[in-house]
Amino acid sequence: MTFLDTNVFVYFVDGRACEKQAIARKLIENALSSSRYAISVQVLNEFANVAMKKFQMDEGEVVEYIEAFHQIKTIPPSVEQTLNALSHRKHYGIQFYDSLIVAAAEHAGCDELVTEDLNDGQIYGSVKAVNPFKNFGQTGRQTKGGK
After folding, report:
1. Distance between CA 103 and CA 86 in Å, rounded?
2. What's the per-residue H, E or C state across 60-86?
3. How far apart are CA 53 and CA 113, in angstroms?
4. Which pLDDT band, with edges at 50, 70 and 90, does 135 fall under?
5. Which of 7, 85, 121, 132 could cross-link to 103 by cystine, CB 3.0-4.6 Å?
């Protein structure tokens, strides 16, 4: 299974990064049509925060997105995940909220975590980080050496 991090959903609505948006749209389309993907409540909450703050979306528009994204298998938080996240934070030296994402991905039984917040290709616990956006800079333009 594949776990999608918040940045996938942010790029889904970010028209300023066209290439990243196209990748995000494909990932989310796949996730909505397959049971092989998962997200967490944290992902939905982080998306809602960014959508309202960065993209100035009103609550009604955010609700529509959350209702659509929630069709993807959604992992609720648990004490077990928090404890696991604290262990990952210490072991890998990553930010706490990133370690919560890793713990949720493990809890969902995922072997892959699509994110640009962790080292591409690195294994965190039982989950491999994959960055489909690595060849594109902040503007969404391909970086030197990108494919």
Report:
1. 9
2. HHHHHHHHHHCCCEEECCCHHHHHHHH
3. 25
4. confident
5. 85
**Distances from the Cα of 80 to the Cαs of 22, 83, 104, 105, 118, in angstroms?**
35, 5, 10, 13, 22
Q: Which helix (H) or strand (E) holds 4?
A: strand 2-4
Integer Cα distance of 93 and 96 in angstroms? 9
The architecture CATH gives domain 2-130: 3-Layer(aba) Sandwich (3.40)
Of the pLDDT bands very low, low, confident and very high (cuts 50, 70, 90), residue 129 is very high
- Nearest CA-CA partner of 69 in 4, 19, 2: 4
Q: Are 8 and 49 a contacting pair, CB within 8 Å? A: no
Q: For the chain, give the mean pLDDT.
A: 93
pTM: 0.90
111-135 burial by CB neighbour count: b if 16+ within 10 A, else e? ebbbbbebeeeeebbebbbbbbbeb
User: Phi then psi for 49, rounded to 5 degrees?
Assistant: -60, -50
